[in-house]
What we know:
Blueprint: E1 14-20, H1 33-43, H2 53-62, E2 65-70, H3 86-95, E3 100-102, H4 111-125, E4 129-132, H5 134-137, H6 147-155, E5 159-163, H7 187-195, E6 201-204, H8 211-220, E7 224-227, H9 238-244, E8 252-253, H10 263-270, H11 280-291
Parallel strand pairs: 1-2, 2-3, 4-5, 5-6, 6-7, 7-8
Amino acid sequence: MIYQPNIDLSTITAIDVHTHVEADDHQHTSLDRELLDASAGYFRAPVPRTPTVDDLAAYYRERNMAAVIFTVDARTALGGHPPVSSEMIAEKAAEHNDVLIPFGSVDPHNVAEAIARIQDLAINYGVRGMKFHPSLQGFDPSERKYYPIYEACAQHGLVALFHTGQTGIGAGLPGGRGIKLRYSDPMLLDDVAADMPELTMIFAHPSVPWADASISIATHKANVYIDLSGWSPKYFPPQLTRAIGSMLKTKTLFGSDFPLITPERWINDFERLGIKEEAVPLIMKDNAVRVLGL
């Protein structure tokens, strides 16, 4: 079954563009136990750490929201630990197409295989984007050898969603389990955005400690957007809070990072920021409708 969205945009209240499928129906998890436990301890989320696609569908349907769902394929960087299947995610999302929007993920270290999988996921499964996590996947996204992967995304009209900034994965472990934060500096993605204006890119998270860089790039590059996931809004850098209510009000997207942060917590804290009233519906839903082609 090829995914096709069937979301009633007139009735949903928000689109959460950043949620994680952390387990399949056989309880295989996207991360090993040490990394799962470290990230759970870092975020201290009040919900189970390993939701399935069915769990996400039920959760967001109950809240009258839609959600972008994905996993991260970091099998090379994680020593061969296989990810949750992007094909399975897309197939299950097709069963819940009233609330879910599937993205795929590929291991960037085998470029030819990644390109072939992007084509397959786009044509035969209907994914709407691809998720990249440079720190977890262990690659410098500005290196030219990865450009054919991005070109494949653009060719098939897929949004490229990149983790930026600090990560809770590996937090508190010796050496952060070898995960290098510098790969998630958004300035590495400025090259990609400049060289590939046809590629729609979302920079995930407030990009701490590089928030100014993300704000600058999103202001400068028409093809770059920012999602606001992974941090409670009460901890947003003040310059980001100012920007999303003004010059970036059409370039920012609601995202929670569920299950690490719940949408209820995020929205409750967001409502206290005093964002200009006209910007709120854009951030919560309308920008995502446009970026995702809904």
